[in-house]
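Recap slide: Endonuclease domain-containing protein, sequence and predicted structure.
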Amino acid sequence: MEQKFWAALRNRQLDGFKFRRQATIGPFVVDFLCIERRLIIELDGGQHDEGKDAARSAWLQAKGYRLLRIWNHEAIENFDGVMEAIRLVLIE
């Protein structure tokens, strides 16, 4: 799923916003990062630990980042809708 997202986000394909894949922020590596909008996109599947994710999210948000978590099944079932939701967050 990450590869499909990267194909849609790379090279400023989403409204001209630049994304980095597997970007490092402090002690963490995030799935996708738009530095310009301080937006992190995380694709979550069954492997995620909610306790660790909450602490990680709190740390990133304290540093001024917005975090958008997308479940893998949601991305698979409604890819176009998820991409539109990301676009809307970027332009707000």
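Residues 50-62 form the longest helix (13 residues).
The first strand starts at residue 20 and ends at 25.
(End of recap.)
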